[in-house]
Amino acid sequence: MEIGSTNWVALFRFRFMKILFLNGPNLNLLGHREPEVYGRTTLTDIEANVRKRAAQLGAGIDFRQSNLEGELVAWIQQAKGEFDVIVLNAAAYTHTSIALRDAIAGVGLPTIEIHLSNVHAREEFRHKSLIAPVCLGQITGFGPNSYILALDASINIKAK
Description:
By secondary structure, the chain is α/β, with parallel strands linked by helices. It has one domain (21-159): Dehydroquinase, class II (Rossmann fold, 3-Layer(aba) Sandwich). 39% of the residues lie in helices and 16% in strands. A five-stranded parallel beta sheet has the order 2-1-3-4-5, with helices on both faces. Strand 3 (85-89), helix 5 (98-107) and strand 4 (111-115) form a beta-alpha-beta unit. The two termini are 26 Å apart. The relative contact order is 0.19.
């Protein structure tokens, strides 16, 4: 690698970036639950791919999953001061949880909402996200690659 081909200042700036990936209900069943919608990739596989990409980018990640709304809220609240960005696949809570919405708004950390499937091409009740108004953006419909896209977006948020 040539020294002139790398933006060393930008690379150093991202070296210590920390990103919190939170996964909501039923995502522990990925690979088995409705494979025609969500595919056969497991959450463990997705985490491994995210960790590999994060290592290439020099970012630290924490990857968590819970079926409990209160636990997700607690993790969001605890993220302030420890993480730079939150990536959240709230799953079904996307459409129902005012508590998650208020936690995101309350901590003030940049948050990216992600979904494996294109929620806008599915059932009507999935079209409304209660968390979208307090998130920086939404990535939906790219399968497991939604997580990699969110990681790359997180790096770009830090660059601004």
